[in-house]
Amino acid sequence: MKRFLLxxxxxxxxxxxxxxxxxxxxxxxxxxDLKTLDPHLAAATMDRAVVxxxxxxxxxxxxxxxxxxxxxxxxxxxxxxxxxxxxxFHLRTGVYFHPFPGYPDGYELTAEDVVxxxxxxxxxxxxxYAGEYAGMTFVAVGKYTVQVKLQKPLPPSLFLPxxxxxxxxxxxxxxxxxxxxxxxxxxxxxxxxxxxxxEYSPLEKVVLVANPKYFRGSxxxxxxIVYYMxxxxxxxxxxxxxxxxxxxxxxxxxxxEKMRKKPGVIVDTxxxxxxxxxxxxxxxxxxxxxxxxxxVAYALDRDELRLTVGLDIAAPLCSPVPPxxxxxxxxxxxxxxxxxxxxxxxLELLAEAGYPNGFSIEVVISERAEYLIPMQNIQAQLAEVxxxxxxxxxxxxxxxxxxxxxxxxxxxxxxxxxxxxVFLTRFYHSDxxxxxxxxxxxxxxxxxxxxxxxxxxxxxxxxxxxxxRVELDPEKQISLWKEACxxxxxxxxxxxLYIKQFVxxxxxxxxxxxxxxxxxxxxxxxxxxxxxxx
Amino acid sequence: xxxxxxxxxxxxxxTLLVVLTVVFxxxxxxxxxxxxxxLGDYASxxxxxxxxxxxxLDKPLWQQYIEFLGGLFRGDLGxxxxxxxxxxxxxxxxxxxxxxxxxxxxxLGVLLGVPLGIYTALKRNRLPDYIGRxxxxxxxxxxxxxxxxxxxxxxxxxxxxxxxxxGGRAGDPVDRLRHLFLPALTLGLIMTAYITRMSRxxxxxxxxxxxxxxxxxxxxxxxRVIFRHALKNALIPILSVVGVYSIxxxxxxxxxxxxxxxxxxxxxxxxxxxxxxxxxxxxIMVIYSVLVVILNLITDLSYGLVDPRVxxx
Lengths: 534, 313
Known about the structure:
Largest sheet of chain B: none
CATH superfamily of the largest domain in chain B: MetI-like
Oligomer: heterodimer
Distance between the termini of chain A: 43 Å
Largest sheet of chain A: 9 strands, mixed
Largest interface: A-B, 61 and 59 residues
Shape of chain A: globular
Radius of gyration of chain B: 24 Å
CATH superfamily of the largest domain in chain A: Periplasmic binding protein-like II
Strand content of chain B: under 5%
CATH architecture of the largest domain in chain B: Orthogonal Bundle
CATH topology of the largest domain in chain B: MetI-like fold
CATH architecture of the largest domain in chain A: 3-Layer(aba) Sandwich
Number of strands of chain B: 0
Number of strands of chain A: 19
Number of helices of chain A: 16
Order of helices and strands of chain B: HHHHHHHHHHHH
Number of domains of chain B: 2
CATH class of the largest domain in chain A: Alpha Beta
CATH class of the largest domain in chain B: Mainly Alpha
Structural class of chain A: alpha+beta
């Protein structure tokens, strides 16, 4: 009897040993571990989320709405010289970096830190975003004043995003990097944001605590715990049991519907999302023939694809630059360049191009649902016009390597880029052609390197992209970008499919503190206004 | 005995070298790039190339191999390509979690499996035997991750008794035990199935032996016949199956760590694999191989404890 009593007591202790953690918001990401918390290297969702809470930019996107005008962040105000070559940022005073070894109270942010940070962001050996800052010099002209000098003027729409709270624009602490080194900084980041790094438990979590000296005021939360949970069932269980407050969901409609039915769960889908675009390799048969590419465009039904992926997940996209960004076009604006589904016409075009019985291609595709599910639907739709697509499913990392080796006749790519210039340059400028471009990148269609329409001349939109890049009149700039989009669609270098929204589920107790429409940080941003009610 | 242990360790070195070489080649043959994995698809090729150089991935394969082996001989596992943290530090942090999980799983398996095996053998072809065999068959055919999810849904989501995630706070044994219970139970139940099956068949073999019949004829109590005469002789096959399935269990712990979001070697390995973190992956394989060698050695040495005929020379 005594033995049973002992077992009962031990079991009870194990089962009900409660945790008391203060007012901490707990968020679980689909990841085994963090990769890096150096904001200039962070690219994965779970890393971007953490650095977003720790760092600030000189300017910032409005929380929850990236389409709104930029707001002041570490810079109280800014101006540009008459010739457009010098931008001057006036920093806020009294902004403090978080404490770190040797600096138990942190220290005040000055222009010296900003210059150091921007120089780091521009260094290809220390930043993933160095290309964004090519040709720029950064000068501290006072304790709280920084100037950025350009070789060519840039319009605000292209200049300010580089200095916003995203990617290379995050401002790091010079002294912390000197103390911790680049390696140490990756797992002990020091910034000026609403939350401070406290602890990293490998493969489990990162703990952030509120920054009481935050210049916008002390956060409502005591802190944030970021968990790394690659198993979806485990994340769901954690949300249902109240072990976490927010979880990253898969971009899958059945999951969204299942979670919406659960009591005490709210599902958020928000943008800007990632653009799913089918790039057609014009350098090789059969897609070197514009009639074949048009046949593919007419064979595909966007609505069917959106239904397959899910209407909550897939928003309409008909333009290479999404309509949310200046320079993008809505489906209505595009008219016949939407290539509304017409399989009879597709069959005629194929016959005209010498493929009356269709043809067969092999396509490498990622095992991730966000790639595989739409690609399987594309496979089924193209089979309707006799195009046999054989899928070779590989892991995600392998797909990224292989498509950059130009192995695919068609490439499904799902990505977001911060503005029209980056979208057009990285995917359609001749310098970016995979393997053979001057700076090989993600131009999978080879636009700018081949005769796309069969008139014997190389077809390119390089001139439009470059002209728009230096155009200071916003209206003219937008018009050039739109023209570039139309040209891409006329040549059928790519066929935009849909915009994939981000999916998160949360407890109704979580109040973000702002209206969530879109976030470049790839998660519902947690800031000083975020709270847990009840 | 010491000579035997040293000889066994020396014999395992070539095996370890072969495993390491195969792993070294395989992780690099697979397409995928750690630099791209770190920087993401937005990074320019220039930035990716710069990072590859910094990581030393532009060096010839043979040079990377020699550096890897050289590091191992010096006891240096290198630094993670992704996080930059020394792999030894990462491993020393997660290894206790994996060891406590697998060890508890093994202990649970032995504590439940051996008595259940004996009991079903004694009740051969009767209802308890059928139930035990069905349980054993289910355990053998259940994927570890599926059993883990079922236990998680029952004990965490429905009953709210145990935490569904994490490894527990360091320095808080009660919290660690709470977090260990469900993952260890998952592994323990699988292990129980294996051990029950083997214990039953080992017991059935010895129960038919003459010395058992003689013991019973002498009028000894049944418990004495079972535990003193039968079980002692059945222990050798049971021990060998415990050894073999402990190695299988280490593999099973990978999925359990993922399902219960526990830190551990398995979770570290899966993350390293997805991100092509060659250095971490190689080092984890070293650790796993060493664990397998140690477990085999312990199994072999334990034979001597239960069978006086076994001599280590």
